[in-house]
Amino acid sequence: MDVLAQLTIHTLITGSIYALIASGLVFIYATTRVFHLAHGGVIAFAAYVFWWTNEMGLPLVVAGIVAILASIILGVLMNEFVYEPLRARKTKSLGYLIATIAMLMMCTAVIILLFGAQGQSLGFSTSLFHVAGATISLLQIVIIASAFILFLDLGALVRFSRFGKAMRATADNEVVAEVLGIDTHAVRRLTFVLGSALGGAASIFYVLEFNLDPNMGVMIAVKGLTAAIIGGPGSIVGAILGAFLLSGVEQASVWYLGSTWRNAMAFVLLFVFLLVKPTGLFGRGRAF
Fold it and tell me: CA nearest 204: which of 62, 56, 39, 36?
């Protein structure tokens, strides 16, 4: 086995999932200026919904649709019943931070209440292929290809659609956007719909590739935040590149240092960028 080739493939697989997580997080932040850490809880909940509906006998495609709908509903509820009231009261950043951490913890509690405290796995497997001395499954090829298609669709939506223009205007200056007749509340709501849908897609791929744990929402949030900080707060492209950088460092650490270092590397990279380059690779410029 070619070690470099195998590490590259694993980096692409894990990085694709991390990039979906991070792009959804940054997509929401760019418009609302809220670091929606509860996004990790939304993804964890949707992952368990996907696993449970498949265990109940539903086909994977149907279970995936249910999981994405669950993530959208949960994300929108968080915005409408938590963030929007806080915004109406002109709450400071600390209030949003406390609220999003509380919702993240609440998601973990709900997962344990509904699905139990034990870990789960789907046990889904497909045929294997050998490429350049490395091994990759058909499922992993589908994950990588699907993620890149979603990234292209997201870019096209933001750049060329009417909603994308309204979202960019809201992100640049919410007051001016409202003066121009843009319903910024509706823009924020639809942003949560799309950002949570990206999280739902990430949850499906997460279940297919990894084991589930009721507390995984916290690490999902940390890895999404780390990718966002690496790329630069507000930069979706930066978040995607940051996710692949994080994935590559993780895979290298697992190979050379052991699996116990995998999650630790997210914190190491997060601290390094916060201390050395807090503006990230792409700085704090335009979100899109």
Answer: 62
